[in-house]
């Protein structure tokens, strides 16, 4: 469940890896706070550190230096699995849907993972309707749906557990312009409903839909840009 005062704080976050000969800095003391009720955009080219940042704030990778806090509590204290289950979901460009399942069944998996097993079938239908997927489409195998429809299913699954943080990784990269606009409207609505929504993209056009808060990632550093 989301609350109006929820916040995600990245504090002095640094990360590096070894290429066999030297250490390469991927993130360099990143500091930023994301607040509930806002749609944020992080813009950066390939190799700028976006993917590493997503992995760390979603507790998919272990933090080397610095910290990530949810409502002032370190996610290391919360525990990675618990944090992913209760507080954050990622919407991937590749959808990451289970191809042999229907749209509804994919969303039910999200509900099950979050521990919401009561009336799962009807709740899945409701969530899919919220993102513009009809009941008929909900009962179709996801591989028979268009790219835009599959992305909507992925969003419905991501909000199934009613987590406060949604991170979208290049969520419109495979979509046409009209579908892109509709998907971004869904993210705006999620933010208006009190969630922290972070869209990571290489597209300045996608970033222009954010709530006047756009960050540019370059060479491992994050800076707020002017709109």
Core attributes:
4-stranded antiparallel β-sheet; single chain; 29% strand; 227 residues; 6-stranded mixed β-sheet
Overview of the molecule:
This protein is an alpha/beta fold and 227 residues long. α4 crosses α5 and α4 packs parallel to α7. The protein is built from nine helices and ten strands. Strands 6-7-8-3-9-10 form a six-stranded mixed beta sheet, sandwiched between helices. It has a four-stranded antiparallel beta sheet with strand order 2-1-4-5.
Concise description?
With 227 residues, the chain is of the alpha/beta class. The chain has 9 helices and 10 strands.
Ends apart, CA distance between termini: 31 Å
How large, in whole angstroms, is the Cα Rg? Answer: 17 Å
What topology, given as strand order, has the largest sheet? 6-7-8-3-9-10
What is the ordering of alpha helices and beta strands?
A: EEEHEEHHEHHHHEHEHEE
Uncertain spans = none
Strand content: 25-35%
Q: What percent of residues adopt helix (DSSP H or I)?
A: 25-40%
Structural class: alpha/beta
Give the overall average pLDDT. Answer: 89
**Annotation field: number of helices:** 9
């Amino acid at each position: 469940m989301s609350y109006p005062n929820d916040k995600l704080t990245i504090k002095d976050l640094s990360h590096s890896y070894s290429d066999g000969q030297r250490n390469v800095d991927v993130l360099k003391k990143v500091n930023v706070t994301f607040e509930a009720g806002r749609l944020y955009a992080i813009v950066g080219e390939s190799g700028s550190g976006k993917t590493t940042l997503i992995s760390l704030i979603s507790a998919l990778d272990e933090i080397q230096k610095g910290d990530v806090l949810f409502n002032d509590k370190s996610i290391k204290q919360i525990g990675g699995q618990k944090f992913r289950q209760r507080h954050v979901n990622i919407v991937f460009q590749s959808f990451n849907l289970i191809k042999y399942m229907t749209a509804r069944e994919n969303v039910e998996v999200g509900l099950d993972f979050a521990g919401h097993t009561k009336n799962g079938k009807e709740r899945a239908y409701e969530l899919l309707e919220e993102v513009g997927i009809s009941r008929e489409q909900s009962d179709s195998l996801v591989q028979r749906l268009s790219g835009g429809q599959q992305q909507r299913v992925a969003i419905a699954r991501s909000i199934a557990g009613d987590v406060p943080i949604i991170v979208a990784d290049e969520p419109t990269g495979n979509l046409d312009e009209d579908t892109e606009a509709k998907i971004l409207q869904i993210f705006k609505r999620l933010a208006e409903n009190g969630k922290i929504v972070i869209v990571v993209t290489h597209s300045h056009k996608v970033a222009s839909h954010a709530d006047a808060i756009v960050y540019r990632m370059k060479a491992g550093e994050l800076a707020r840009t002017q709109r």
